[in-house]
Recover the amino acids of this structure.
């Protein structure tokens, strides 16, 4: 069998692994991706909505380094669209309905940080309500719009990436096991099947059986509903979110369950999402489907990336001998923001190969010290 040599062996073809593959291509690096078997459970990337919003949570906080990440993401997805002829980026302003207390909190924040006002702006209710279909904001709230919000259609991105990887013979579908890795001390490279690689990068999401991270994961469920005739100018946010699909369909999410880390859909989640829809006067919608996946998160609620000794990251049996070189990389903890974070994180990880420092907030070293 012919041996193939690559610069990076990437484990995982979710949004992180896919972004890393494309960014490596832009640097003319040789890559190969190990993707999970098709009969495995759905990943967070496959289920995720790909929403990009600058303001999050009940504290109305501006997302970490949002402008930098959004600019990088837009450039990246345009590049992918040009290469694949599949456009997955949609500029999609998002509505956030604020109570009087929330509005006071936001105005106070804008006084302290005037540039924040650009990310969440008041808008006339008549411009956003869809009363002909019964959709409107909760009583006693005012609509604000996030004009910089967007959406990445992750199924389109992942399918286009997989097609490109298959056409270039750069992907294998297999269950990755650390015991299948061999380290050649003389040649200083990894061996996996007929592949040799200088470095390996784990983009495997929530995999506590594989990598050493203090996960704070949670199961999230979402559902697709039929809402024909409703205006599709905006995504709606408030406790839950809903975002328009094609042909009158909307995606609705997402629940948060840190106790049941499985892929089973539940009636409790369906009820919770339906109750959330009721705040916008969407009652008894036709539910077309429901999905569940586990979001990978780590302490701090921001991602973790870096290079380290394999034994510091990978969980292997006694039969595995690890090299004493920092040639094992990782991108993880993207939570629900993978579409926004992955492109720039991939670039930062590749920069670190050449010795560039990583932002300390996300450096894998913060976990290895303990």
């Amino acid at each position: 069998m012919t041996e193939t040599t690559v610069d990076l062996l990437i484990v995982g073809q979710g949004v992180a692994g896919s972004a890393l593959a494309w960014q490596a291509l832009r640097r003319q690096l040789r890559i190969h991706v190990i993707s999970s078997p098709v009969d495995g459970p759905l990943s967070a990337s496959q289920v995720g909505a790909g929403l990009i919003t600058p303001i999050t949570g009940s504290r109305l906080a501006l997302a970490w380094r949002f402008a930098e990440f959004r600019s990088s993401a837009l450039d990246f997805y345009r590049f992918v669209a040009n290469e694949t002829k599949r456009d997955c980026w949609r500029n999609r302003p998002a509505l956030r309905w604020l109570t009087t207390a929330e509005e006071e909190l936001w105005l106070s924040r804008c006084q302290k940080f005037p540039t924040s006002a650009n990310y969440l702006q008041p808008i006339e209710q008549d411009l956003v309500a869809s009363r002909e279909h019964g959709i409107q904001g909760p009583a006693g709230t005012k609509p604000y719009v996030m004009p910089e919000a967007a959406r990445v259609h992750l199924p389109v991105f992942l399918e286009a990436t997989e097609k490109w990887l298959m056409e270039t013979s750069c992907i294998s579908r297999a269950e990755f096991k650390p015991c299948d890795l061999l380290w050649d001390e003389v040649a200083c490279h990894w061996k996996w099947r007929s592949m040799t690689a200088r470095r390996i990068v784990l983009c495997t999401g929530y995999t506590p059986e594989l990598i050493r991270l203090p996960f704070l994961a949670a199961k999230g469920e979402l559902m697709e509903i039929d809402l024909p005739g409703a205006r599709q100018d905006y995504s709606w946010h408030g406790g839950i979110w809903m975002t328009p699909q094609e042909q009158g369909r909307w995606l609705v999410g997402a629940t948060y369950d840190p106790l049941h880390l499985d892929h089973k859909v539940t009636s409790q989640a369906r009820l919770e999402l339906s109750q959330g829809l009721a705040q916008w006067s969407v009652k008894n919608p036709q539910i077309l489907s429901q999905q569940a996946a586990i979001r990978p998160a780590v302490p701090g609620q921001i991602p973790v990336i870096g290079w380290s000794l394999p034994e510091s990251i990978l969980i292997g049996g006694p039969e595995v001998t690890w090299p004493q070189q920092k040639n094992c990389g990782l991108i993880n903890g993207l939570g629900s923001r993978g579409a926004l974070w992955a492109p720039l994180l991939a670039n930062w990880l590749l920069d670190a190969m050449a010795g560039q420092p990583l932002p300390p907030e996300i450096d894998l070293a913060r976990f290895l010290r303990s």
Observations:
- The mean pLDDT is 91.
